[in-house]
Amino acid sequence: MRRKAVYCNKPLAVNVKRKLGKGNHGVDDVDARSDMHNYQRLIKYLPEPIFVHDGNEILFANQAGLKLLNITDSGIFAGEKAFRYIHPDYWERSAERVQAIMQTDEPNEFLDCKVIAEGGEIIDVEVSSTRIRNYLNKGTVVQSVFRDMRERKKEEEALIQSEKLSVAGQMAAGIAHEIRNPLTSLIGFSKFLKTKIDQYHEYFDIMLVELDRINSIVQEFMALAKPQANQFRKHDLVKIIQNVLTLLETQAILRDVQIVSHADATSAELLCDENQLKQVFVNVLKNAIEAMPSGGVITIDMTLHQQSELIVEIIDQGVGIPQDQLPKLGGPFFTTKDSGTGLGLMICYRIIEGHRGRMDITSIPEKGTTVSIFLPRNV
User: Fold this and answer.
1) In terms of pLDDT, which residue wins out, 34 or 328?
2) Separation CA 326–CA 183 (nearest Å)
3) 43 and 103 housed in the same domain
4) What DSSP state is assigned to residue 24?
5) Residue 24: pLDDT above 50?
6) Pairing state of beta strands 58-61 and 358-364?
7) What CATH number does the domain containing 64 carry?
8) Of the candidates 181, 197, 227, which is a domain's last residue?
C-alpha cells in the first residue's frame, strides 16, 4: 500500500506494506523496514528539523532536528518521551494537536511553540504535524516539522527597535529645539548675574549645576534626533579604548573602581567613526562604574573573531539588572538608574548599528553585567 508523508505541507512518497498473512510475515516485515529506512534517508538531511513520534516516544529525528536541540549523540535520543523537549507551557496544546492529526491525512497548520534544547536554551519554533500510517510495528505515527524562529525573532526585534528609535528621534528633535534657546539664555544670564552680585553665590552655583544637567539631557536629545554623518577611517580600537580610560580614570578612582584591560587581538584596526565609538565606550563604562557603589573591578576583554570581527566585552561586578528588564534596555527613555533619561544607551545601540555591528547585554542581579560589542573590521 502506498502512503504519503508530508514535508512542509508537500507530500513525500513512502511505501509501507501491510502484513498480508502468516506466510508473508517475514517478507512484508523486511519490506516495511526497507521502506522506513528509505524514508529516514530521505528526510535525514533535509534543512528543516523533522521528528517522528507515536505520541508517547520519539522514534526518529533528522540531522536538523538533532542540531536544533543541541544533541550530538543520537544514541541517547531514541526512545525519549515525545514531549521531552517541548516547553511545559505547550504540553496540553501539543497533545490536543496530536490527537486531532490522528483523524486526518491533512497536515495541521504551523503554530507557535517553544522547545528546550540540551543545555536549557528555550527556542521559539513553529510546528506542523501530519500522520503516517503503518510505520513498522507502531501503527499510525506523527511526523512533526519544526521551523527555527530565532533569526526571524531577532529581525522582528531589530525592526521594532528601529521604529522606536525613529519615533524617539522625532520627539526628541521637537523637545530639544524648544528647550535649547531659553536654556542658553538662562545659563548666560545666571553666569552674568553671578559676576554682578556679591552674595548668594552658592545658589548661583546650584542653579548652574542643574542647568548644566538639563543641557546634557538636551545634548542627548539632539544626538538622538539628528542623523549622524559617519566619518569612517582606519583606527586602532585599543587606542580608542585607552583614550576613553584616560578620560574616566578620575571617576573610577573616586569610586574605588579598578579597570583591567586585555587585548588578545593581534590587530585591532577597523574602519569606524572614532568619536562615535568613544561615545559608546564612555557611556558603557560610566554605566559600569556607577553600577558599583562599593567599588570593584571592571574587565575589558578584546578578541578577534575569524580576522573579520572585533569583540569587546565589558564586564562589571555591579548590582546587575533583573532579567525582566534586559529586553527593555535601549528602549526610549527606559533606565535602571534613579536619575537619567535612558537615551545614552539608546544612542549606543544606534551608533553600533550604524557600524553594522551589534551590542548584547547579559546580567545576573547582585553578580554583575556583561556588555558585548561586536564590530566588523570592514564596514
Assistant:
1) 328
2) 34
3) yes
4) T
5) no
6) unpaired
7) 3.30.450.20
8) 227
Q: What are phi and psi of 50, to 5 degrees?
A: -130, 135
pLDDT at residue 280 in the model: 93
CATH value at residue 200: 1.10.287
- The pLDDT tens digits of the residues spanning 70-101 come to 888 766 666 778 888 999 999 999 999 988 98
Separation between Cα atoms, residue 295 and residue 245, nearest integer Å: 16
Integer CA distances (angstroms), 36 to 18, 128, 180, in order:
13, 21, 74
Task: Identify whether residues 236 and 349 lie together within a single domain.
Answer: yes
C-alpha span between 194 and 159 (Å, rounded): 49
| pLDDT recorded at residue 126 | 94
**In a shared domain, residues 357 and 307:** yes
* Alpha-carbon distance values, 14 to 72, 104, 149 (Å): 28, 17, 29
Of the pLDDT bands very low, low, confident and very high (cuts 50, 70, 90), residue 16 is: very low
179: how many CB neighbours lie within 10 A of its CB? 16
Residue 213 confidence (pLDDT) = 78
Q: Domain total for the chain?
A: 3
Same domain assignment for residues 140 and 186: no
Element (H, E) at 171: helix 150-196
Assess whether 73 and 216 both reside in one domain.
no
102 and 214 inside one domain: no
Instruction: Evaluate if residue 194 carries a pLDDT over 80.
Output: yes
Q: For residue 253, what are the CA distances in angstroms to 241, 245, 256, 259?
A: 17, 11, 5, 10
Q: What is the CATH number of the domain that holds 320?
A: 3.30.565.10
Parallel/antiparallel/unpaired status of strands 58-61 and 10-15: unpaired
Residue 29: predicted pLDDT: 55
Question: Contact at 8 Å (CB) between 180 and 191?
Answer: no
Q: Which domain holds residue 379?
A: 232-379
Torsion angle of C-alpha atoms 54, 59, 63, 66, degrees rounded to 10: 80
The Cα–Cα gap between 355 and 115 comes to 34
Residues 168, 333 contacting (CB under 8 angstroms): yes
